[in-house]
Structure formats: C-alpha cells, structure tokens
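Researcher: Quick test of sequence recovery. Tokens follow.
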C-alpha cells in the first residue's frame, strides 16, 4: 500500500511544516485518496478488519477521515455520525449530525496522527454529547511512540511512519521520482574515474554500487573521498551500495559495517553464518545474496530458500540479489544485465532487461561505464526497462 501511495503522490518528500508545528521531510495527504477509488476501498477494507464487534456508530475526524468513515459505514452496515469542527450558527445548530443515543459505542477514524491532539479533541466533543469512544483507528501514525493511548484506549494504526521511511520504501520512492530502476555497478579502480562517471550518469541512477576495496586510492585520501561521495549523492539523489559481500561471524561483520556506514547506505552480505549474524547489524540497510549471476555458483535451491526465510524476517534486510523472483516482501536486485553481451570468459552470464521483468532494480556495470558515451548508453537501458 505504501508503494501505491507514493505512486499517486499522496506521500510527498521535501520540507514541510506539520499541523503540530514540527518540520518534516515527509508529508502525507490522505485526503486525495478519494480520487482513487480502488486504493480508497483497500484502505477501508483494512480498517474494517480491525473493527470491534460491539461498535454502534462510526465517525471520522473532521474532515480528512470522513470519506473513510462513510465507506466503512455502508460496507459494514454500521450507522455513521458526522462531527463538525464547530457548532453550526444557523439551522439546527448541531455539533453532530446523525442519529445516536447516550452511551452508544463509537469507532473514531483518523487519517494521520502526529501528536494525537485532533483525536483527543474529537473524542472529547463526542463524549460531551454522551457517546462512548471505545475504539480509535488511524491510517498512518507519525507518533514516535508506537503504543499510543487515549485514556485506556489504544490508538491502532494501519501503517507507521517507520514503514514509510525505511530503506526499502526509500529506494522505491527514488525509483518513482527519478523514473529509473538502474543501479550503476561502478567497478572502477580510482576515485577520479568514479567521480567522473557519477557526474556523467548520476541523474539517471537510483543506486551507485561500488567496491571500495578495489579502488586503490579510496583510503589514501579517505575523508575527502567520503565527503565528495556524499556531496554527489545529495546532488544527484541516489543511494550508495558498498558491495562488500560480507560473510563472517556477527562480531566481525558489525565492526566492518561500522566502518562501511561512514560512506555507504547499503551493504551486501552472504548470510552463510546464519540469522544471528544479521540480527545485530544496525545503521545500514542490507542486501542479501541469494543467487549470483555467475555460471556454476554453489547456491542450491535449499540454501536459497533458507536465505529468503532469514531475510524476510529481518527488518534491516531491504532486498535480495537473485536471478529469479524469490520473495513478495523484498526488493529484487538483479545483476548481470546487458543489452549486448551474453557472457565473459570468467563465468559471468548476462541477461537482457526484458528477461528479468520481476526486478525492482537492474544492476548494470561495464555496459555503461566502459561505453564511449555512458550517458547515451544509460538512456538506452532506461528506455528498455521503463
């Protein structure tokens, strides 16, 4: 669902002042969902699954959640009441429209909460009219406390801001915003050449993949190189993947990651040492190697199945490297993509983009950075993939 909300521009990125006064780089405008009936229906169905059995009435906070309350009322045959922000100054001068009785139990629906003040205000108004707010559900919670209560009533949510700002969703957002599924595998051996290729194609990629350990001068001028990489990343809006393919005990990998996270957002790992080795890695997103693009690799089906199982249950794992679709929960990063070659003489096999349509991210290397005109070449890949 979060992906769909990005696609229809319900979730926006930038700098925004929220109703609470907080400044955020994420703005969520669920009011516009009413223009997308299928998505509106899906959200309402998710809410419906959480409704208590003893609810008498449904009410949406004014006015962002009213459309959701209306759909849920009709689809679940629960009477609806309409809460105004203030009492009408003409006609019946009511605060609440609809038929209700004292002590009726109300499901209160909110679209987005940050501090919860709007929910508290609405609840207090309903209670003054003799109603009992017995259940509160919000679509998205921005509250840092994931266990929020009004009095003794838990405020349930469908999605939390952490679901929106996690690594997997951020990559999907970048793909949508840049209209590119290309990860440049820049297997380049000196920093000047790396900076040059970034300037040539940075605006067309969602991820830059590097091997710092093959760049002979990466650590020679370490602070400058890290600063320059970060500047280019921000300038062209991509993420950096250190393709180190770690494979060690947890303690060693934690120490390796602590260093790698100084310049990279993502690191690749071979989880051959098991789930425990992954559990305590923090501060960086993980891509797990399920299957390689080399001929004769030793990753059999049983191993792949176990790796996927471990990966799907680890919050830091955002995706897998694989030549086949192996998960509905993780992003698929597919290497060995080429418009021309079929293989090299070192076991690398290549596939055309159309043969890997399940991929969320296509990893392309030599086909771009060794071409005579990298910018024109990457445009060919984007055109083929999109």
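Model:
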């Amino acid at each position: 669902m979060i992906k769909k909300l990005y696609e229809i521009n319900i979730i926006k990125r930038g700098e925004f002042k929220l109703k609470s006064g907080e400044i955020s780089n994420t703005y969520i405008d669920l009011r516009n969902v009413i223009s997308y009936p299928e998505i509106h229906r899906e959200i309402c169905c998710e809410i419906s699954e959480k409704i208590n059995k003893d609810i008498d009435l449904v009410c949406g906070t004014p006015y962002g959640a009213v459309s959701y309350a209306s759909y849920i009322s009709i689809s679940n045959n629960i009477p609806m009441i309409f809460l105004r922000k203030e009492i009408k100054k003409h006609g019946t001068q009511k605060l609440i429209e609809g038929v209700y009785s004292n002590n009726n139990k109300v499901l209160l629906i909110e679209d987005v909460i940050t501090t919860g003040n709007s929910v508290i205000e609405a609840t207090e108004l309903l209670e003054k009219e003799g109603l009992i707010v017995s259940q509160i559900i919000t679509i998205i919670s921005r509250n840092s406390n994931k266990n929020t209560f009004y009095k003794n009533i838990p405020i349930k949510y469908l999605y939390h801001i952490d679901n929106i700002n996690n690594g997997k969703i951020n990559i999907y957002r970048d793909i949508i915003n840049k209209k590119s599924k290309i990860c440049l595998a820049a297997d380049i051996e000196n920093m000047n050449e790396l900076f040059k290729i970034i300037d040539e194609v940075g605006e067309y990629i969602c991820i830059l993949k590097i091997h710092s350990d093959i760049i002979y001068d990466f650590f020679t001028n370490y602070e400058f190189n890290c600063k320059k990489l970060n500047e280019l990343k921000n300038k062209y809006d991509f993420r950096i993947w250190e393709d180190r393919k770690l494979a060690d005990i947890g303690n060693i990998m934690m120490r390796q990651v602590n260093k790698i996270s100084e310049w990279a957002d993502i690191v690749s790992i071979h989880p051959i040492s098991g789930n425990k080795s992954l559990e305590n890695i923090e501060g960086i997103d993980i891509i797990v190697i399920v299957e390689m693009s080399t001929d004769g690799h030793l990753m059999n089906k049983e191993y792949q199945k176990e790796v996927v199982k471990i990966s799907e249950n680890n919050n830091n794992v955002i995706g897998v490297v694989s030549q086949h679709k192996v998960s509905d929960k993780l992003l698929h990063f597919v290497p060995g993509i080429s418009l021309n070659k079929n293989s090299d003489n070192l076991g690398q096999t290549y596939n055309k983009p159309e043969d890997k349509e399940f991929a969320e991210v296509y990893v392309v290397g030599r086909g771009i950075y060794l071409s005579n005109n990298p910018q024109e070449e990457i445009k060919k890949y984007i055109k083929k993939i999109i």
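The mean pLDDT is 87.
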